[in-house]
Design goal:
Number of strands: 5
Structural class: alpha/beta
Helix content: 25-40%
Domain Beta-lactamase hydrolase-like protein phosphatase-like: 8-109
Order of helices and strands: EEHEHEHEH
Protein name: TIGR01244 family phosphatase
Shape: globular
Strand content: 15-25%
Largest sheet: 5 strands, mixed
Number of helices: 4
Radius of gyration: 13 Å
Strand order of the largest sheet: 1-2-5-3-4
């Protein structure tokens, strides 16, 4: 995988934008699930689409979910959904957005959720 990832715990890591071509490497790196937190077309029409990433991830044997979160506008509903994914998706989990920061904020907020 050419894109680096940052571990947040033993079971969760974050990364900047990934593409469909990264999914086999994500699986090879030991991840079992991917959370896409970047809304489609946020970065324009050159940004990889979630549907393509989901298909490639599933083809690689990953569980992939699309949870778009608008940068700078994270809601409690976003946090609750992310928390649920952390509890239910097969670990380890790799979440990504534009830079990884949004996912990190979601993770930190979700860890405060009872």
């Amino acid at each position: 995988m050419s894109t680096p990832f940052t571990p947040l715990s033993d079971t969760v890591a974050v990364a900047p934008q990934l593409s469909a071509s990264d999914m086999a490497a994500v699986k090879a790196a030991g991840f079992n699930s991917v959370i896409i937190n970047r809304p489609d077309l946020e970065g324009g029409d050159t940004q990889p689409l979630s549907a393509d990433i989901i298909k490639a991830g599933q083809d690689a044997g990953l569980t992939v979910v699309y949870q778009p979160v608008v940068s700078g506008a994270m809601t409690q509903e976003n946090v609750n959904q992310f928390h649920e994914y952390l509890e239910t998706l097969p670990a380890p989990i790799l979440a990504f957005c534009r830079s990884g920061t949004r996912c990190t904020h979601l993770y930190n907020a979700a860890k405060q959720t009872p």
